[in-house]
Amino acid sequence: MTQTPTPDGGQRSLGEIVGDITQDLTTLVRQELDLAKTEMKQEAGRAGKGAGLLGGAGVAGSYLLLFLSAAAMFGLDAVLPLWLAALVVALVWGVAAGALALTGKKALQQSNPQLPTTQRTLKEDASWARAQKS
């Protein structure tokens, strides 16, 4: 059996070395998982705050659009019957809603959440593990 000198002058067996490497790799994997969890929590918190603010802006914007639509409808009432003016305004909003839905769907399909710190440290860990084999 191969013996390796230790810093205190003793000898370590190959089994002890393999056991240490296995333990180090287990610790490394746990640390990477903890890092990924932490990153995801931070990003989720930022996204939640932004979503809440956008929700409030959406409510205020809805009221604005409601009153602008009513103004447009009553403005068109000068040249069209009221029911037809309401229909024209509704059709304009239908086209706008369709365009926004398609644009939003495309943006969601293109999103790809990244964990840059985790990716970088995983690459470093892979290099470390390869160095341990040598």
TrEMBL record:
Region (Disordered), start-end ranges: 114-134
Keyword presence, Membrane: yes
UniProt entry tagged with the keyword Transmembrane helix: yes
Pfam family, one: Phage_holin_3_6
UniProt keyword terms in alphabetical order: Membrane, Transmembrane, Transmembrane helix
Superkingdom assignment: Bacteria
InterPro entries: Phage_holin_3_6 (IPR009937)
Sequence intervals crossing the membrane: 50-76, 82-102
Protein name, entry field: Phage holin family protein
Lineage of producing organism: Bacteria, Bacillati, Actinomycetota, Actinomycetes, Propionibacteriales
